Give the backbone structure.
Amino acid sequence: MLDQFVPGRQGRIVSNLSGKLAYNSFCPAPLQSVLPLELDGSTMRSIAECRAIIGEVQGMARFVPNVGMYLTMYVRKEALLSSQIEGTQCTFDDVLDPTLDKNASRDLTDVVNYVRATKRAEEDMKSLPLCTRLLRDVHSVLLAGVRGGDRNPGEVRTSQNWVGPTGCTLSQASYVPPNVEDLGRTLSDLENFINNEQPIDPIVKAGLAHYQFETAHPFLDGNGRVGRLLITLSLMNDGILEKPVLYPSYELKRRRGEYYGWLTRVREKGDYEGWIGFFSDCLRESALNARESMIKLAELHQEMERLLPSLSGRRSGNALKLLNLLEGNPIVDIPFVSRSLGISVTSASNLVGSFVTWGVLEQRNTKRQRYRTFSYERYLEILRAGDDPLD
């Protein structure tokens, strides 16, 4: 465990039990004790750029038509990317396909639960500080009815856990988080760090809070996903975000090896500055992608708003209603369109058929005559970026 550990400001190795049961765990230092950080010019520029881009995305979200639909898509994308870091194999299309039963796919249910957990967190933050109680609530939603659901959802662990290859023992673990006693102090310190007003940049705070949560590993399962959600919640807590308009896991997934390597490096060497440099670079790239996506989605919306009335004539009202529906549900079937727009199945079929003729929708399986689904491909192409499962 932490084979390259160099004693320093990052914390200490703790000896537990004795004899054949003896093992070492890591107790991280309180974050407040490692401040101020000595960040280099490159990291400071990255942080400034990151804040500026996030500000642009936040500003655009106030004026983009139908922004609620886009936000829903962004939350789903973050849910997918974060879950894929943990090995989930489904894609963005799987998350949106109305014919796929989430109960039939363990991976899909993981993503659906992450979306629900994000919404729960937003609701909880209206009445609660960003604290362990809130994260426990989020965790209980995240693990409801999925793998890990038998591992005390919503409860901070009361036993030792460890990180390593599947099936490894405590003695073979690559990392052993704080023991139960140290865990309580670590979580209390983390709460204070997140909620105390202090002269620290919100990007830096989010990066440090994420590191500390991952290092504490307070749950028996689901720590990675809750820890990445904490990034967004921390930024919202500090007023940098009003809504979850970016997906931090976009770049963390692409650079997963470096991501895990940097978390280990902080524990071994106390290199908080290097971690913040890496973290701010990743968050900047994620924000850039979110900004680019929002621009393209807004341009596509405007193009369709101009085009559809000229194509649909007297049916322009229903055509525009279907466009709005597609921006929240880019994969649809005819019964869903009928129910959502309050029109007959025949009218829905004709309207969807027209969208196919106009090149707005594509039938997903051209050989299927029943239970057909249709996708808004130009919209999906924008949002699919980075959605391939990891090998």
User: Anything to note?
Assistant: The longest strand covers residues 11-16. The domain at 314-383 is CATH 1.10.10.10 (Arc Repressor Mutant, subunit A). The CA atoms of residues 31 and 208 lie 7 Å apart. The chain has 15 helices and five strands.
